[in-house]
Design goal:
Layout (H helix, E strand, L loop, with lengths): L1 H26 L1 H31 L3 H14 L2 H7 L1 H5 L1 H4 L10 H6 L2 H24 L4 H26 L12 H22 L9 H26 L2 H11 L1 H22 L2 H4 L2 H23 L7 H31 L25
Length: 367
């Protein structure tokens, strides 16, 4: 009964949040759409990032492969739901993106930045990612299939996710261009998916930590490196349109939020995880993973909203409302997928200890 009450309560919160989102849209449609886009990007980064990390675990096997398989696979299988939750963004393209009504576009830019082409590409992204999620999950416990799915899947994922980041976020400012933006979006998704899987894996009391802390620290350093590289390249290039993108995020309240992201997403977790008791402790790692998830939403807002010329008060209403509605609707789907995988013998089957390069189990003891 308590489970039904909590589900009813969460569903009620989601309905109230949807109503608040509707009010925000009535007050200022573009501000509501920008807030919804940021949340949709952050929420969809959970299944897409989980898919990427899942495929990596198939290639770089260890204790974490087995420990994170169920939460990663369950999150990845919610990809179709994430695509459905992206529909309001597709409907709002003419009001959301400046290029959607730009009559001065010609040639390839006019074709690529057409609203219909944008919608079609987004649908293709989610169809491809959904197929990869199904294929990757079906390959579990079969070493050769795992290698094939992960090897081919990571290439396809990297190409499509890079394009999606450019489409969804970078094109909000058509005059801004960064050759590193696709990589930045990849690390954004991977960090989101890994952090979410760690929250699910570490939530039960006494859950093993394996080497989760070292893995999280590695992905965090990759994320920080890509951000630093983009900043250095733009700073040295000193191109006005690209510099303006950073100036919009360094001034006023956005500057406060940007420094909050830097401190809470990099400085604090980095120095904390240098300590072995934090890096290998369940409670500290769980806290850092939860903080990382919160910072992913903040990063999505910082990437999407500055320079959009929208009302801050409406954005303050739209972002929490979209977070509650989109997040809870996705969470309901994830819970169903998680329970199905936890009760499936195939998904909980242990892997042989050691494989050779071709994916064939060997008799050597684990190092």
């Amino acid at each position: 009964m308590s489970g039904r009450r909590s589900t009813f309560f969460l569903a009620l919160i989601a309905l109230v949040a949807i109503a608040c989102l509707g009010i925000a849209a009535l007050l200022e449609l573009r501000a509501a759409l920008v807030g919804y886009l940021a949340v949709a990007v952050a929420v969809s980064a959970i299944p897409t990032g989980a898919l990427a990390v899942l495929m990596i675990t198939y290639l770089v096997r260890g204790s974490w492969t087995q420990g994170l398989h169920v939460p990663l696979a369950a999150a990845a299988l919610t990809m179709p739901l994430a695509g459905v939750l992206f529909v309001p963004v597709l409907i709002g393209v003419p009001w959301l993106y400046p290029w959607a009504q730009d009559a001065d576009l010609h040639g390839f830019r006019a074709f690529y930045l057409a609203p219909g082409a944008f919608v079609l590409r987004t649908i293709i992204y989610f169809v491809i990612w959904s197929a990869l999620a199904i294929w990757t999950r079906a390959s579990w416990a079969e070493p050769r299939r795992m290698l094939a799915a992960a090897s081919a899947g990571l290439i396809v994922y990297a190409l499509t996710a890079s394009l999606a980041g450019v489409d969804w976020l970078e094109s909000l400012t058509p005059e801004f261009h960064s050759s590193i933006y696709g990589l930045l979006f990849l690390t954004f998704q991977m960090l989101t998916g890994l952090a979410f899987a760690l929250v699910i894996a570490l939530w039960p009391a006494g859950a093993p930590t394996f080497r989760y802390g070292a893995i999280l620290l590695s992905v965090l350093l990759l994320w920080a490196y890509i951000h630093a590289m983009q900043y250095i390249v733009i700073w040295t290039g000193n191109i006005p349109d690209e510099v303006a993108w950073y100036l919009a995020r360094e001034s006023g309240v956005w500057g406060v939020l940007l420094w909050t992201l830097i401190i809470l997403q990099f400085v604090v977790p980095f120095f904390a995880m240098l300590l072995e008791r934090v890096r290998n402790g369940r409670a500290p790692l769980l806290s850092i993973a939860l903080l990382t998830l919160a910072m992913r939403l903040l990063e999505a807002v910082v990437l999407a909203a500055p320079g959009a010329d929208v009302s801050g008060s409406v954005l303050l209403l739209a972002v929490p409302a979209a977070t509650a509605s989109v997040g809870l609707l996705w969470w309901f789907g994830f819970r169903i997928a998680l329970e199905q995988l936890r009760s499936n013998e195939r998904d909980t089957a242990p892997l042989p200890d050691v494989f050779d390069a071709a994916g064939t189990p060997t008799s050597q003891p684990r190092a």
